[in-house]
Design goal:
Length: about 475
């Protein structure tokens, strides 16, 4: 297993440290042991380190003789990993180390996440801190906690914890690509109060459901144009409401703020004599959606089943307010970047709806790589909520990392890459969170930042694997970058 898997792989010390930290359980919010390991390793290298209240560790590697006046560079990684496993695998992420194998050009775990995100970054940083042969300026090696489930470490870095004004984040997943920006985000929760009235007469209770959508990540998949189950259900309900007298009992749909909703369901009440009309509307809706989303969501279904005995249903005013609100709330890409090709700059996800005693609660999530545009789309969503008479609650959110195509570190990074590998690197930004924007914000701004990493396929899933040849390229590039900024 682990020992044989890395036998003969280069750079030897990177794989050595990867093996070492893989033996230490380090799921998000369980980083204590790996941080102890890092502090001990730094001490053994003769390097000073310090730890802040939340747990982040910084290791100081003083400049080589004659390089004391060079700019300080921060090399940043996160120490936690996502814990996912296949259903048939016995693995306790709190106790067991990660077991992995070599499969051709890949290292892959045995039915669990591998933790190469960001374990290769951690191992590479340790290897670089250890290397006494390197000529470099002052280095601050920053190891953060809990990137994956809350960006907690980045969010709590104290001003002054790091001092460098150049930062290299080693947590992206495509060798040959330099990342220069990411999105910031926040959630906006909207609660519409609902008044109910009893249901009387000969009625049918129906559960109308939208099923079979692909969904996806609300950041990196938002540009794919996939259907939103909440939107399709709303359109279906409005079509029914136009034709027959419909009462609304409840609305449910979506699961997470950062996922495009795949399923949604409404309980409605109609006159027993209107059921066949409703059925034909559902058939028409499904046909219409299958046509409109033929390429991206071919398996969309609108289905109905008999519901349980009717509880009091929304009064007409509440029903109209809720349906109009859901119909008006924006979803999807709001603007593409004018500076970076194919980058979504601003988006919003209509994510979750739930019916409670108080009313209907709707969770939405906004992202943008430009701070003012994040505020703009959040305020747009809030206004729509207020027009429906709803209570609107924005979360604190986190800042993005606005791409700077004129960054001097970027120019250097492009040069170094081209000289080393004889071809130009791609330059991209991603429409999801990295720690860079937050760290920059926490330490007062002005940190010229770039992100790069080895090629990792299927991160956050048990399919996660890291390309062996890309680790060697990534590490030699990292070493050259550290030299070039000193
Ligand atoms: Zn990561």
């Amino acid at each position: 297993m682990n020992e044989e898997a890395i036998q003969g792989l280069k750079p030897e010390r990177v794989w050595h440290y990867f093996k070492e930290i893989s033996a230490i359980p380090r799921g998000s919010k369980n980083e204590k042991a790996v941080l102890e390991y890092i502090k001990k390793a730094a001490a053994a290298m003769g390097l000073k380190s310090k730890q802040d209240k939340v747990g982040n560790v910084v290791v100081f590697k003083p400049a080589s003789p004659g390089k004391e006046n060079s700019a300080t560079v921060v090399l940043q990684v996160h120490t936690d990993m996502v814990c996912e496993k296949n259903r048939d695998v016995q693995h306790d992420f709190l106790k067991d180390g990660i077991k992995f194998n070599r499969e051709g050009n890949f290292i892959k775990a045995d039915g669990t996440t591998l933790g190469s995100d960001d374990g290769i970054g951690v191992a590479s940083l340790l290897s670089l801190l250890e290397d006494k042969s390197l000529v470099h300026g002052p280095i601050e090696g920053l190891f953060t906690i809990d990137e994956e489930t809350g960006l907690t470490g980045a969010n709590h870095i104290e001003p002054g914890f790091i001092t460098g004004k150049i930062m290299m984040n080693l947590d992206s997943e495509d060798e040959g690509v330099l990342y220069i920006g990411c999105a910031g985000g926040l959630d906006t929760t909207i609660t519409v109060p609902v008044k109910r009235k009893p249901v009387t007469g000969k009625v049918a209770v129906l559960n109308v459901m939208v099923r079979g959508l692909k969904g996806g990540h609300s950041g990196v998949d938002i540009n794919l144009g996939r259907a939103n189950a909440l939107k399709l259900l709303t359109r279906t309900l409005m079509a029914i409401d136009e034709k027959v007298k419909m009462r609304l009992v409840s609305l449910e749909g979506g699961s997470k703020h950062n996922a495009i909703p795949r399923e949604a369901e409404a309980t409605i009440v109609v006159a027993g004599t209107d059921v066949s009309t409703v059925n034909s509307i559902l058939i028409d809706s499904e046909k219409m959606f299958k046509n409109a989303f033929a390429t991206v969501d071919p398996d969309v279904k609108v289905v109905v089943e008999k519901g349980k005995k009717a509880k009091p249903a929304f009064d007409d005013k509440s029903k109209t307010a809720v349906l109009n609100l859901l119909n008006s709330l924006p979803h999807g890409v709001i603007r593409m970047s004018s500076d970076i090709r194919d980058l979504v700059e601003t988006s919003t996800n209509l994510a979750v709806m739930k019916t409670t005693a108080a009313g209907v609660t709707i969770v939405t999530s906004q992202r943008s790589s430009i701070e003012s545009e994040k505020d703009m789309i959040a305020s747009h969503v809030a206004s729509v909520g207020k027009l429906a008479g709803a209570k609107v609650r924005p979360s604190d959110g986190y800042p993005g990392w606005q791409p700077n195509v004129n960054s001097s570190v970027l120019a250097k990074a492009q040069n170094v890459y081209t000289n080393l590998f004889g071809k130009e690197p791609a330059v991209k930004a991603i429409h999801a969170g990295l720690e860079c924007g937050i760290i920059n914000d926490r330490v007062g701004g002005g940190v010229d930042t770039i992100s790069f990493g080895p090629t990792i396929i299927g991160p956050h899933s048990p399919d996660e694997r890291v390309a062996i040849d890309s680790v060697e390229k990534f590490y030699s590039y990292l070493v050259e970058m550290v030299k070039s900024v000193s």
